[in-house]
Sequence to fold (341 residues):
Amino acid sequence: MPASSTQTATPLDPSVPEASSGESPSNAEASGGRSAEFPTEFRPLWAQIALWIFLVVPTLAVVAGVVFAALGGGISLIDVALAILFVTITSHGVTIGYHRMATHGAFKGKRWLRITLAVCGSMSAEGSVIRWAADHRMHHAFSDRDGDPHSPWRYGTGFRAVARGLWWAHVGWLFDREETPVERYAPDLLKDPDLRRVDRLFPQLMALSLVAPAVLGFALTGGSWWGALTAFFWAGIVRIFVVHHTTFAINSICHVTGTRPFMTRDKAVNVWPLAILSMGESWHNYHHADPTSARHGVDPGQLDSSAALIRIFERLGWVSDVRWPKPARVEARRTSADPAS
Ligand SMILES: [Zn+2]
Ligand SMILES: [Zn+2]
Fold:
């Protein structure tokens, strides 16, 4: 297998483009969509139906799972192990593959690794890789301002407005049929034949994401169909719910309540309770201060498993040109307030 590769994502310069200024709420609502100023595309009906299914069914599964467990159904150790395995694989696919690699170009990876990471990210059921990256680049470009696809400050700064905004940032925006134009926000990724292929295979990878736990459950229980069914349920559907809502919490909670040790022009915050489950992505204040950094948890004790894995990949020679945050770069972004805040 050829070892050479290039990761061609253009790291988004957080300084451009400016959308609007000031602390005033976005006028996106008044324009009926994200904003009349910013061109968008419209999601086809089949994709809208699929989105509803993949958001509603896992939610119902969690309710059913709790009832099932409460009635004495329990959950086997194999199901727990498979669920943790699939959370770990698919979440890191998003955090390392979709986010730090494809969206921000935080490192260059060998071709097989880039494809693998994009495949693992696709199995999280958060949309195809190029679509995800385009949405997220638009988020950084207009963060918490008019044009941001999912700012919790969209409706204003009052209590009710922020409560509505949190819902919008968490899941509401996903149901909006307006989509980020990928040609505008991810032209480099569209030129990458490997990522384009993985992007096109998203429906098949979604099927794999549900079938793989069932197959493993079947095998690990010595050919039990019940073992296949429960693994499909816990490590397939319920796992998708867990990974979804962890990612969604970065868009909602991590732009509202937490600490701001670093300077950003938006309201991104660090939220330590989410560090482990989010694989290090909840150090979101530093991420917005330095979007191309391969590490988000830059202060001592800030767990960032995504950065730890990138470090391992680097030592194995699988990735190169990793944008590790140098101490001077970190300090230059720190607010003058208490560094520990
Ligand atoms: Zn953000
Ligand atoms: Zn980002």
Observations:
- The pocket of zinc ion (ligand 1) is lined by residues 139, 143, 255, 268, 284, 288 (CB under 6 Å).
- The chain has 13 helices and four strands.
- Strands lie at 41-42, 108-109, 178-179, 319-320.
- Confidence is low (pLDDT under 50) at residues 1-33.
